[in-house]
Predict the structure of Iron dicitrate transport regulator FecR.
Amino acid sequence: MKPLLSKQTIWHLFEGKTSPLQNTLVQEWLEEPGNQELYFQWLEEWERENTQFKPNVEQAYLRSLELAGLRSGSSSEAGFTPETPVRSLGNRIRFYQWAAACIFLLLGTYLLRDFWFYKHYETGYGEVRTILLPDNSRVSLNAHSALTIPRFGFGTGSREVQLTGEAEFAIQHLPDNRRFIVRTPDQLEVQVLGTEFIVYSRERGSKVVLNQGKVQLRSLTNLKAQPVVMVPGDVATLSMKGQLTLRHQQPLSTHQAWKHHRFMFENTPVSEIAYQISEQFGVNVVVSDSTLARRTVGGTFQANTVDDVLRVIADILNVRITRTIQPDQSVETFVLTPVH
């Protein structure tokens, strides 16, 4: 379990007043993404409270040489008043604590450089979240998804974001026609000017659904291929092998249902339904019978929890659902078995 730290402790870190043990606790605390964002907020507050700090560089330099034993001559030559041995030891300890804190901050800045330059938004299983970006574009994140944007200058400079999972984008058009670019882990690049679209990118590939406007797609794994231009109603898929496929005049409501915690199926195989439930709620859904896996379901179902959707599937298909937790697994497993 990661330690719980107060704002006062973090402020002491900025002021060089923390002990080596506290520095270690802060480093462990920063391993949590949520704490990293809180750390940045507290840093901004501390900077507003401490807007002016002007150290005496020359005196600090001479003192550091004296403590390190590198400066010849007596301390009085440097303008220092002789001190008792006890006082000198105290100053040395404080100097080493200050130096350790500085080293810790520099090391932390290097290790967290991704955090300093980028802001991260995430959703848990079963969670849908809407985010307003600095350029007034709106993003709705589906469950178990993550969006990364530049922390500084977004909209005035780059408008590039990274997406893992699924999200709907409503892009704000800017006077200078600045492009908005979405990138996915499998090297799919989506370029837009002002439009509404959905991007899906998970382990089994990527998908783009265009609602309004126009977007241009290209796979960065094959730069020789011509970009694909989409129009409203198009659905583009990128396979795990990097092959881009475009389908026209597709029903969009099916792809947008997750925004309202709904599942929409149109002759959807049970095997595909099981996969969607696993993605949405972070559980394992096992279809024990191959004939059952090929059966199809149609309809729209409200489902805020995994139990909601599985209860509907059980009633429609007349199947028994068994819930288990394997000793070597941290997630629940639901097994669908036909009732004969």
Notes: Residues 52-57, 70-87 have pLDDT under 50 and may be disordered. Residues 85-111 form the longest helix (27 residues). The chain has three domains: 7-116, 117-254, 261-338. The radius of gyration is 28 Å.
